[in-house]
Specification:
336 residues; 6-stranded mixed sheet; 33% strand
């Protein structure tokens, strides 16, 4: 894809708000999604991210602000303008997948094309192609109730992609899958997005999904965007304590210092006191074996416990004195 095409703004929200009574579920949100990018709305339950997605899809009307999609205004609260969902060329995958149980795989995927009056031979060709994209060739005649969770998700994805939308909306699409399948589907969806150059607005509460899937992340808190930026930017230089604490883990050190746990080096203390620069003494309180490493709860000298991952080869034991050290440039200072 050409660089000029990638810079094109597909979706823009301008001071968009949604009110439920006196509650501002979404409060003056502004964001831009560029063609070929994955933009993720990340935040805890109730922060307004799904409501924002629903307003983009046309399932909810904004009470304030404008939504511009593919260069056209699709919602403008001040003018009473509202374009319904079926007139916005967007595909959506819901958290529950919403696969119709009385239909086969082919019928589920073909349904959006039938609604648009596409000819039968064209429908057959498009459905076959999109099923092939997600490795579902040969499943066309299978009844929906006989599909696994991962297969249902692939069918929902096919149904959203079959009419070639300008924007794909994903609402917590991996939350109903087990951990191993979530990882597999994240990989598959990201590879498919890169292969097809799809533009995606993705909603999740899972920081790992956001970091691994996104070109840009908008962290939401209480209806507002706290910070927007690339995953590495938000992770390394969070603009607020909320972003810092929500996007990954942190370890608080004396003097209101914070550091990411993966930047700490843990060694056996062997008589050292932790008084050297950029070191602090601690003691292993307990260890949990989790397969490829240990999860260790370590009590620091000033009394605050932290949870860190330790390699299996370290010979660790509960009650063991340890030293935590780190590079100075990895330290972040925050006000109390």
């Amino acid at each position: 894809m050409l660089g000029g095409q990638r810079s094109e703004i597909v979706l823009r929200l301008e001071l968009v708000s949604k009110l439920f009574g006196a509650v501002r579920a979404v409060n003056r949100v502004e964001l831009e999604v560029r063609r070929g990018h994955v933009f993720t709305l990340l935040g805890p339950s109730g922060c307004g991210k799904t409501t924002t997605l629903r307003m983009v899809a046309g399932l909810d009307r904004p009470d304030e602000g404008r939504i511009v999609f593919s260069g056209k205004v699709v919602a403008d609260a001040s003018r009473g303008l509202f374009v319904p969902p079926h007139k916005r060329n967007m595909g959506m995958v819901f958290q529950s997948y919403a696969i119709w149980p009385h239909m086969t795989v082919f019928e589920n995927v073909a349904y959006p094309l039938e609604l648009r009056g596409v000819r039968k031979h064209v429908i057959r060709d498009k459905v076959d192609k999109v099923l092939d994209l997600v490795g579902m060739t040969g499943f066309a005649d299978r009844p929906a109730p006989l599909l696994s969770g991962g297969q249902q998700q692939r069918v929902a994805l096919c149904r959203a992609l079959v009419y070639e939308p300008d924007l794909l909306l994903l609402d917590e699409p991996f939350s109903n899958l087990d951990a191993k399948l979530r990882l597999q589907m994240r990989m598959e969806v990201k590879l498919l997005q890169q292969r097809l150059g799809i533009t995606v607005l993705f909603v999740t509460h899972d920081q790992l999904e956001a970091l691994s899937m996104s070109d840009q992340i908008g962290v939401m808190n209480q209806g507002q965007l706290e910070q927007v930026g690339a995953p590495s930017e938000l992770y390394d230089t969070p603009a607020s304590p909320f972003v810092r604490d929500f996007l990954g883990q942190t370890v608080r050190l004396p003097g209101n210092l914070y550091i990411r746990p993966e930047d700490l080096v843990v060694t056996q203390r062997n008589g050292a006191t932790g008084s050297a620069p950029n070191t602090v003494a601690g003691m292993v309180e307990t260890l949990l074996f989790v397969g490829d490493c240990y999860e260790a709860r370590i009590t620091l000298a000033h009394g605050e416990p932290v949870v860190l991952s330790l390699p299996r080869s370290g010979g660790w034991a509960a009650g063991q004195p340890v030293l935590l050290s780190w590079a100075p440039e990895r330290t972040h200072l925050w006000p109390a």
